[in-house]
Amino acid sequence: MDPRIHRRSESEKEPCDSVVEWLNEASVATSESSKIGNIAKVQEFVIHKDPQLLDLYLDDVLQFSLDRNADVRKAIAGFIEEAGDKQPDKIPKMLQSLLRLISDDAPAVSKRALRTSGRILRSALKWIASAANVTQEMEISWNELSTLKVQIINMIDSDNDGIRTQAVKFLEGVVLLQTYPDPESTKKSDDFSLEDVPLTLKIARRRKLEEEANHIMDLLIKFHGSPHVSSVNLMTCMGSLALIAKMRPQFMSNIIQALQRLQNDLPPTLSDSQVTSVRKQLKLTLLGLMKHPASIEYASVIAKQLTQLGAKEQDILKAYPKQEDIRRMKKRQQEAAAATAAKRVKLETIIPLVEECEPLPIPIIAPKQPELIELSETFIAERLSVEIAADLVMDSMTWVPDTMTAIFQREYQPTVTSDNGVQRQAIAKLLSAQIKQAKANKMKKDIKEEDAVMEDLIKNPTITVAEAKRERKREKDREKEKEAKASLEAHEKTLAKARGRVKVLKLSEVTKPLPKDIKDKGLLVAVNRILKSERSAVFGGVTAVRSKILTNFAATFNPYIKEAILRYITDDIRTRLDLSLGWLYDEFALLQGFQRRTILGTKPHEAPHQAYDFLLCTLVSAIDLIQGKDRDLLVSRLYREAPLITEPAVEALKTLSSDETRGFASMTLLKELVIRRPTKRSIFLNVLQSHTGHEKSIIRDAAIELVVELYGRPELSKVIEEYAVLYLGFLRLPNPPEILFGSDRGRPQIENQWTESTTRACLGLYLALLEKHQELIHELARVYTSMSADVKRIVLRLVESPVRSLGMASPQLLALVENCPKGAETLVTRIIHILTEKSAPSVELVARVRELYQTRVSDVRFLIPVLNGLTKKEVIAALPKLIKLNPIVVKEVFNRLLGTHNNDSGIPHTSPVTPAELLIALHNIDTSKAELKTIIKATSLCFAEKQVYTQEILAVVMQHLMEMNPLPTLLMRTVIQSLALYPRLSGFVMNILQRLILKQVWKQPKVWEGFVKCCERTQPQSFAVILQLPAQQLAESLKMAPGLRTPLLAHVELFADNQKAHIPQSIMDVIQGKQPIDMHDDFDIAPPGDYAAEQKIETTIEMDLSEPAPPGLD
């Protein structure tokens, strides 16, 4: 828990304190379950327990919609749904977060947000409809909701099945919300539909909402019949259409037709099992629809379709509407038709003149079938296709008068809706009325002709009826011919009169130009009207046309138009990026001369590329102000799709990529631009390479990684290699170059001394390329010779990781060791040391180091890394030089030889010398080659490794040293140190001392001195050895160690008389302090076979009977 979180005791806590505590815990929690749990607590408290706190903490909760964890963002979507349902007036504050969650990259979050959107739309419309006055906040919210609907409509084409499913369910809710319910259906208390929207509500007119619902219904039917729809989406859409048909019977006909088309044309992408599932679902859907009263008139069609799907006859009969329902439905239709006819009669009745009024019989209205005109309307509407409509128009063009008639101007009312079904019904109604009128006129005309024929027959009974009709027809033809001639003559006379006074119409004579400010103002108003018509363009399917108009205006018209369109784009750059890209392409076309400027556009006074530069950089700046992950996606898309990337735009991208808070998206974009834009490749590569020397490691490492990936491309490898070598060469300079400094490099202040940071800036890319191109190692050696001492130290520290990755088998590393440049010895030594630190040196490496040491470089430090690869003779020969080095280096040498430098690596240790041989070799070093003090320090380092030099090893060493002639100077020192480390060696040491007496140890003063000290330290065990000394040497030893005399005398006094008899009198005199008697040398030492000596040795062995026998003596 973060210590900054303030906690109060439970008794002191207020409601808001608990909420603050939960929010703080959620913000610092690392586990998703903790975050979600705290958010759930806040949700329960501020929505249900204390709703007054919702407004206070709403923004804090919505901040979690930007959390990295998808489950947390899903929890926020649920919070928005519940908060909007309980307090709709808070919806305006939550819409932006909801829009962001809908377009979330995680499908689970997007699906949860889509479910929330349906509830939010319903709550928002209910809130707006129930408000007394529509506020500006409501208008803004409704516009955002309209944008949300457009966005979700587009998501019906998403690549994710689940997202498409939720989008379908949302559109289902929109249709039910924005249409009128069935009057016969029962209405629940919480139901809300189009009839609940006030007629006076301006921002959401009933007619527009209904048109939008009809359009969405068409989209659903189109999606339902798509050939590439998945089985899951198809069954979901089928269920939505069935629900709409039951709750909104006005769509029943279209939905049943859609289901019929589906049965006949299933999507070809479905597998056999999916086809079976879809057909089963279709059968269940049709059975459900058949039970609904509104489907009575389609019952026979549905029954036939169910039979084709394999439904059982009893299931069909069970679902078939009952006779009572059929009679009830027909009665309702007849009543509706009668009511409609009564209304039409009432509207079309003409008031008669007073003098013509006569008492008329009152007609008795009886139930009747629909009139002929109604049947004709249905007949025409069902068969009126686009081709027939076109033929009707073309055939009727010859009958269209030159001028519009007065009756047409007075009575014609254009159809205001854009719905094709409504327009088709209106046209069918007009055509059916004309057909009926034409039939009535023809009947009247036929009656008149028959009367005329009867009159001719009465006047001339001798002719037949057929002759009378033919004569009547010839008369009519003659009359028509006369009328045509008269009309033609009148027309020619009119043309002749008009030819004399025809005058060409000139607009300049009848009009006057508008002032520029009025013209500009009108143009701006028109553009603003186009900008506000986004939704209309989407519903009308002319989005591309609208975008083309706007981009053309923006690129070629005056600055006021450009400013208005640019402001419109930057207000919502997320959804209007396509428009901005279209504008960019138009500006590019003008820049390249592919397109001419319009005469309405002002002549630019700036450079040709300035308008393009300004637009591109403005778009980059606008996107940079966006918070969230959309920002990086939009920047990437803008740079990838822009036709030209100018220098200011490159600088802007360089600034973005040098911000560590932006992540690696900008860096990755630079890499993509290097690959995708060959003409600007060097510019983008240079920007990316400049970041390889950045001060901040997160930027530097990311840039190096991307440049190394680009190094694998043949067309870029040479350029990158030259750049790395160039920056490596900067290390030769006494001071860092100015190119390493600047705000874009993370070093605003210029420094005069090389530091680790500036050295890394020059060396980072080069070291990263070493693994890809090992030959570059020679460049480092050449530059190393000219570096200052401080830079060399930093370089030696930085090369460890790259060199280790190369391995000692690298041919280039071996070549570098073989041809070491003069002055680069320390670098080569460091490289060899790194290679052999955790593994044994290879034969090739040892051979090259040996040759280098023997022929060119006599520095023994070269041999240290490969000691384990040398021969025993070579190691022993180099020991005098090695132990003269720094104590730390000497310890490293012994660690390598003894195998203690890499105990944890798991690699078996191999050494040319054993620990015993190493210690023996140290005792044999000539003091003329190394001082005795240096040798003593070296042996002390060996004794410090107790896990190596065990008592067995030391026993072997003492055994070998004791057998040498002359005895090594440090023999007794080693004996004393061994005894100090392992007291159990006392018996073995007594044996050594006895054998040293036989070798007349007193003849070597240094060894003799050590012998006496050893005896002094090992008393009383050493008394038996001391008694074996000649009297003269005994006296000398007692003089060198006076403390021995008294304990030795006490020891002898304890002997039995027979034991004392074996001690020479001269020895007793020396012990007792009497004047010694001179004796011949021949009798100074008892021979090895002397009884006394054997007795003493046996006594010594008996004294150490509890100790283990030393190695070699068992």
TrEMBL record:
Keywords: mRNA processing, Nucleus. The keyword Ribosomal protein does not apply. The keyword Nucleus applies. Residues 107-327 form the Symplekin/Pta1 N-terminal domain. It is found in: Nucleus. Transmembrane segments: none annotated. One of its GO terms (cellular component) is mRNA cleavage and polyadenylation specificity factor complex. GO terms for biological process: mRNA processing. Residues 859-1039 form the Symplekin C-terminal domain. Residues 467-488 are annotated as: Disordered. This is Symplekin. It comes from Microctonus hyperodae. The lineage of its organism: Eukaryota, Metazoa, Ecdysozoa, Arthropoda, Hexapoda.
